[in-house]
Amino acid sequence: MILVTGGAGFIGSHIVELLLAEGQQVRVLDALLPSAHRSPPAINPEAEFIDGDVRDPMVVAAALRGVDGVCHQAAMVGLGADILDLPDYVGHNDLGTAVLLAELARAGFSGRVVLASSMVVYGEGRYRCATHGLVSPPPRLAQVLEHGEFDVVCPSCGAQLRPEAVPESAPLEPRNVYAATKLHQEHLAFCFSRETGVPVTALRYHNVYGPRMPRDTPYAGVASIFRSALERGEAPRVYEDGGQLRDFVHVRDIARANVMALLAPTPVRGALNVGSGQPRSILEMAQALAAAFPERLEPVVTGGFRLGDVRHVFASTELARELLGFAAEEEFAGGMAEFADAPLRA
Q1: 86 pLDDT band (50/70/90 cuts)?
Q2: Do 153 and 160 meet the contact criterion of CB atoms below 8 Å apart?
Q3: Residues contacting residue 130 through CB under 8 Å, at least 6 positions apart
Q4: For the chain, which end, N or C, has fewer CB atoms within 10 Å of the first or last residue's CB respectively?
């Protein structure tokens, strides 16, 4: 039996489907938070379902009975509305993870744990200066962004930096509340692993898109926000100059990576990037999505910004290929065309 926390959510529901297709018994624990489940949740009838909160030790203890694998997806996601979201993010993400791990230890769990982490733990991505080599730029300042200066520069000489794919060994420097909680989840999970010997794989998702994304909330991903605008007959509004590089990875690929980590003959310990391995700009993504709509509205580059966003971050995927045998299969243009018509959650 495999427990999937958050298994009625966007990514979790796809993992549940794939596990069931692999012949696994699946139990779902999901609190069905209104911020993510204002439409009917994606609860697979073939899975056992528990409506409960991962922060409740009694609920978690019951959910763990007979379980030999845990896929921990339950979390608040996205940049959120503002700093007032901080207690909710810490409660759901960090306290929830702590309760789950404590109950696993109390139950003498001897299976494996797969944790949903995120590329946001890196903060800004990996950059190289022609003169100073690899450098770590400081957070971008509001007064600089207000002048339309979006690219990061070398802190030593001021030269524009060249972005590179981020390996798992890169320094971890979260730049917003959500990112801080995801890194703390990793720290808690790896402490648990060292204490108990239970193998933990933390999958650092890059920008996930696909069917069942939440729409029209501050917690939705950028692909969903653009898709919702196009459905309203509005052009997507792109922050900064649209040149921000990300790694857009389809939710079916994310689900495959989770199932591979759960069922691999030998568990993989530690953190792995999960992405497509192909960086794309935010503007390029908006254009690909707009091209799938009959109106073909051209995205509008606003020059605006969100403090806490990073300029470039995209994955090095070699380690996941080497240790897990994972490589993304979904093609970008086809995935965006499908996403333009895919069902989203209110």
Answers
A1: confident
A2: yes
A3: 159, 162
A4: C
With 60 as the cut, is the pLDDT of residue 26 above it? yes
Specify the range with the lowest mean pLDDT, choosing from 68-72, 79-83, 222-226.
Answer: 79-83
Lookup: tokens for 222: 């950028």
Q: What share of the chain is helix, strand, coil (3-state, %, to 5)?
A: 35, 20, 45
Please identify which residue in the block is written with the tokens 């979790």: 12
DSSP single-letter state for residue 307: B
Residue 80 has pLDDT above 70, yes or no: no
Length, in residues, of the chain: 346
Which of 22, 18, 24, 106 minimizes the C-alpha distance to 61? 106
Dist. CA 310–CA 174, nearest whole Å? 10
Q: What is the pLDDT of residue 217?
A: 57
Which of 5, 77, 75, 9 has its CA nearest to residue 42? 9
Q: Is the model's pLDDT at 169 over the cut of 70?
A: yes
Q: Please say if the pLDDT value at position 53 is more than 80.
A: yes
Token pair, residue 323, equals 């240790």
Structure tokens at 53: 């909160």
Residue 178 annotated to the active site? yes
CA distance 142 to 151: 13
SS3 call for 139? coil
The alpha carbons of the chain give a radius of gyration, in whole angstroms, of 20
Q: Which of 177, 193, 207 is nearest to 276 (CA)?
A: 207
Measuring CA to CA, which residue among 170, 199, 18, 51 is closest to residue 112?
Answer: 199
Query: Each residue of 204-255: pLDDT tens digit?
Result: 999 999 998 877 655 557 888 898 899 899 999 999 999 999 999 999 999 9
For tokens 């935010």, name the residue: 282
Nearest to 114 by CA among 321, 335, 320, 328: 320
The number of beta carbons lying within 10 Å of the beta carbon of residue 116 is: 27
> Which of 92, 237, 236, 247 is closest to 177 using CA atoms?
92
Active-site residue (options: 89, 178, 219, 239): 178
